[in-house]
């Protein structure tokens, strides 16, 4: 029966690995840009006379536009062509980077970031949807692992590259870097990449409008909640709920919905989705927490801190390569479960770090986290995308991106609140307000006794936060165990849509 359900392998595109390089370049430019920006913020504040609120908008404007448009741009890529949409995104991203590089005011920089967010939203879903249409079932795990690895490369390489550039150039160079990368990716895409799209059908304009407003309101609420609480975000939360419920009703009733809601009836898709939300939730604050731990508690310089993340990136890259070769033998679910258990173990080791822990304890923890994420994330993404019909690859990729963006934003908000609350509770009641708010504020005082208290309070708060993140990963493991059965077989080429549950079981 398994043979009967397996479709013939289509002729492989001879340029597929070059196409993968283009897709990775297109994704890498987004990751590096956001990582480098965090290093450049102090210089931007000085040169543009930007206050804290303006700097926050430099970051949040991109996030809001990017997250709000993902579902819409994914649907448009299926409708009008994935290569076309990706190239348009690269053009916008490169042009907006030029605007940001030579911005003469905070408002001009924010405008550039808004357009960069639009470009990023056009690029990101298209890269994954093109990948799954270019690579067949046998090679797709390796391609997804390579595509996923660019996040790790950007995470470690971005701050290091940014630090080197800022030592010799002005802050605008971190945006100017995007222009040649985008130009190369555009030329390579037009030369190497075939166009692909879903069957022609009407564009769901009401669905797009509802999803944009609902998602933007939700992400805005998540961003603002840690500082404003429910009193300051209840209006945006209400708007988000109203529009997202209206979007759900619209998609269920529309003849040609933007998002095929029946996908959530597929237990593999649902299990992968919830697992990815919880894993990205748990990992969201990892970089921020460890950066502060390494700098303020262990006393590392910014450059040394960036280099200290090498064990995480190296372990992730190795695990992704190993996982890509094992997924065909072991299946998606076992690999995902193994990765999540390793990731949970890494969270446990992170929670055990103290004020006197050396680099090697942190390195071991980061290696476990990197290995776990490297095994679990590509496998879960592959399972999610495998449950989506090829003609809806664009919106399916956008769903994957939106799921991870939402999980990450929730993680930053919730785990950030846990960290801040636990840290403040651990500080002396007579400490200055700035010192009770953050460990950076404590260091600004220069008080030796207060710094010792701040290190201890932060380390305890970090441990509590990582324990909460580890609990989220274990919850994701349970969900994956029960819902991702047979995920290896859930690929568009291998199983027809009309296959019954007994047939699926036999195919497994």
From TrEMBL:
Family matches, as InterPro entries: MFS, MFS_dom, MFS_trans_sf
Keywords, alphabetical: Membrane, Transmembrane, Transmembrane helix
UniProt keyword Transmembrane present: yes
Keyword Nucleotidyltransferase: no
Gene3D superfamilies for this protein: MFS general substrate transporter like domains (1.20.1250.20), Multidrug resistance protein D (1.20.1720.10)
SUPFAM superfamilies the UniProt entry points to: MFS general substrate transporter (SSF103473)
Topology within the bilayer: Multi-pass membrane protein
UniProt subcellular location: Cell membrane
Coiled coil: none
Entry-linked Pfam families: MFS_1
Source species, domain of life: Bacteria
Principal subcellular localisation of the protein: membrane
Protein name: MFS transporter
Species for this entry: Nocardia tengchongensis
């Amino acid at each position: 029966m398994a043979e009967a359900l397996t479709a013939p392998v289509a002729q492989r595109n001879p340029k597929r690995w070059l196409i993968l390089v283009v897709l990775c370049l297109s994704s890498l430019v987004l990751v590096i840009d956001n990582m480098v920006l965090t290093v450049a913020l102090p210089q931007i504040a000085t040169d543009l006379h930007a206050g804290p609120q303006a700097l926050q908008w430099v970051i949040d404007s991109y996030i809001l536009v990017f997250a709000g448009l993902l579902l819409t741009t994914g649907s448009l890529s299926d409708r009008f062509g994935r290569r076309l949409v990706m190239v348009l995104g690269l053009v916008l991203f490169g042009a907006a980077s030029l605007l940001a590089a030579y911005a003469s005011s905070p408002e001009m920089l924010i405008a550039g970031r808004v357009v960069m967010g639009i470009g990023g939203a056009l690029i990101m879903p298209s890269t994954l949807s093109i990948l799954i249409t270019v690579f067949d079932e046998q090679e797709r795990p390796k391609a997804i692992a390579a595509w996923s690895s660019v996040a790790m490369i950007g995470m470690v390489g971005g701050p290091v590259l940014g630090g080197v550039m800022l030592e010799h150039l002005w802050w605008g160079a971190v945006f100017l870097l995007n222009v040649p990368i985008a130009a190369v990716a555009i030329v390579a895409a037009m030369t190497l990449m075939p166009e692909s799209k879903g069957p022609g059908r009407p564009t769901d304009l009401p669905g797009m409008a509802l999803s944009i407003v609902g998602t933007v309101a939700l992400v805005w609420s998540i961003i603002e909640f840690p500082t404003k609480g429910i009193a300051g975000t209840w209006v945006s939360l209400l708007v988000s709920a109203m529009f997202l419920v209206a979007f759900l009703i619209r998609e269920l009733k529309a003849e040609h919905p933007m998002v095929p809601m029946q996908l959530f009836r597929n237990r593999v898709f649902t299990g992968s989705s919830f697992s990815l939300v919880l894993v990205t939730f748990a990992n969201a604050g990892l970089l921020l927490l460890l950066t502060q731990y390494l700098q303020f508690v262990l006393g590392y310089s910014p450059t040394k801190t960036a280099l200290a993340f090498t064990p995480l990136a190296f372990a992730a890259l190795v695990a992704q390569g190993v996982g890509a070769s094992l997924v065909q033998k072991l299946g998606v679910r076992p690999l995902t479960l193994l990765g999540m258990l390793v990731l949970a173990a890494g969270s446990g080791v992170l929670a055990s770090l103290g004020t006197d822990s050396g680099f090697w304890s942190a390195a071991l923890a980061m290696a476990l986290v990197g290995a776990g994420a490297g095994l679990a994330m590509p496998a879960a993404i592959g399972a999610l995308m495998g449950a989506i019909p090829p003609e809806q690859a664009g919106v399916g990729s956008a769903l994957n991106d939106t799921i991870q963006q939402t999980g990450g934003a929730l993680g930053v908000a919730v785990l950030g609140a846990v960290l801040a609350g636990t840290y403040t509770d651990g500080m002396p009641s007579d400490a200055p307000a700035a010192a009770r708010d953050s460990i950076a504020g404590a260091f600004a005082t220069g008080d030796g006794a207060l710094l010792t208290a701040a290190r201890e309070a932060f380390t305890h708060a970090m441990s509590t936060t990582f324990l909460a993140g580890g609990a989220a990963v274990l919850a994701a493991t349970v969900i994956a165990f029960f819902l991702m059965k047979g995920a290896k077989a859930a690929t568009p080429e291998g199983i027809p849509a009309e296959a019954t549950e007994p047939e699926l079981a036999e195919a497994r």
